[in-house]
Amino acid sequence: MSSALLKIKKVTKTVNGLRIIDNVICNFEPGKITGLIGPNGAGKTTLFHLITGELRPDSGEILYGGMKLSGLPPYKVARLGIGRLFQDVRTYRNLTVLENVASACFKPAQEAPWYPFFRRRRLLEAEKAIRDRALYWLEVVGLHTMTDARASALSYGQQKLLALARLLAGEFSALLLDEPTAGLSPPMAAKMLKLLDELVRGDRPKTIILVEHNMNAIKEIADFVLFMNEGKVSFFGRADHVLGDREVREIYLGF
User: 6-81+172-253 in CATH: which number?
Assistant: First the structure.
């Protein structure tokens, strides 16, 4: 029996008459980092959209921990434990750094409009716990000295770290990361990769799937690599095997 946490089973998606995802079959193992690579237009981001509920597959199934995701709205997918980091960051620019991360810590019941009136004591206890959790993750990513700064005042690299801290504060078990090192300086990219590596090697390992064009990043931290081309999975295996394949190098790396 497969130990895969996330299973994609014969998933197909057509948009405007063009088949973007073509009968994709793949599994993602728990506690591992899988690099999702391929040329532009290969279907990588579309596959993320299908997993997280932004799009619905035309056919096939997506299973997470044995539960069917296909057809669920994004908020229900998130509540099952799948979090996503978008390439365009999407921080709350007018909120402080601390407020951005704290926003991911509230439970659904605590967001009800009547909660502050009937659960005042619990709300105060929850606020302290949320602040402590937010500060913890800000320290992990190195932004703990900027808690009162507006997100809009941060550099692009710092905003990516902030978005990651917010994702981690949400306590998702699986993380879908869209180009986490894109646009980062070499030191900032190295910091990002170190954080991701620590997340899967710790006591409570995350499952990470990342779309990434930085092959040095893939070589450094990916356990497995899935190569997509024209909406199909062309290769899947250990990072060194896939990146060393002649056809992958010709199609994607250009040599």
Answer: 3.40.50.300
